[in-house]
Amino acid sequence: MKKDHISNAVIRRLPRYFRYLNDLHEAGVIRISSSALGKSLGSTASQIRQDLSCFGEFGQQGYGYNVETLRSEIADILGINKEHTAIVLGVGNLGRALIENFHFERSGFTLTAAFDTSPAIVGTSVRNVPVYHADSLEQFLAEHHTDVAVLTVPQRVTQQTAHRLVSAGVQGIWNFTNIELSISNPAVIVEDVHFADSLLALSYMISDRDAAAN
């Protein structure tokens, strides 16, 4: 039985578990122990069992986990099978790169449309995703249920665009703009992606290692 409160740390680890189990499944691996799973992911058997116990009981003592079963269970937990829909706001370098290279469908999302204001882009399509003018955003959202908006617009219009999305009923925003959004609606979930954070964390670890070596 799922616990009432799941920590953010556990939620952040689940996609990594899913990716690894997916790789094992594609490699034909039938089962794996919590010890082997933890070792492969740089964790511990105890941590794996503790995380999974937040959602129920999946393994068998002395047997471990059936890879396909656990993979499917985590996919259900993450909502991969719920057929979410997404749109992209901003088809500049980053927006186009995401549409062309990020496999939304592998995470359970269907990318239905993109929006921009550039005459050179509006009316075209990118990887079969039609690009509409940003002025038609509200009309599109009124006619097409959309769960998530991917935000890659210029910073000067980030907050305004976010307000438009929230007012139109979008449930989640995947925000790549490096602007911290101010959203008053508690029902809307914002996931901020800051590329510099990962790079700076890497910088710290390199610097710290070098300092320890000296």
Report on the architecture of this protein:
With 214 residues, the chain is α/β, with parallel strands linked by helices. The protein has helices spanning 8-26, 34-40, 45-53, 67-78, 93-101, 137-143, 158-167, 195-213; strands at 31-32, 65-66, 84-89, 109-116, 125-126, 129-133, 148-151, 172-175, 189-192. The strands form two sheets. A seven-stranded mixed beta sheet has the order 5-6-4-3-7-8-9. Strands 1-2 form a two-stranded antiparallel sheet. The protein is globular, with a radius of gyration of 20 Å. The model has no long low-confidence stretch (mean pLDDT 92).
In round numbers, the mean pLDDT is 92
Number of domain units: 2
Q: Describe the largest sheet.
A: 7 strands, mixed
Task: Output the CATH topology of the largest domain.
Answer: Rossmann fold
- Give the end-to-end Cα distance, rounded to a whole number of Å: 50 Å
Number of helices: 8
Strand residue content = 15-25%
- Low-confidence runs: none
Structural class: alpha/beta
Give the number of DSSP strands. Answer: 9
User: What's the CATH first level of the largest domain?
Assistant: Alpha Beta
Name given to the CATH homologous superfamily of the largest domain:
NAD(P)-binding Rossmann-like Domain
Strand order of the largest sheet: 5-6-4-3-7-8-9
Report the C-alpha radius of gyration, rounded.
Answer: 20 Å
Q: What fraction, in percent, of the residue positions are helical?
A: 40-55%
Order of helices and strands: HEHHEHEHEEEHEHEEH
| Dominant shape | globular
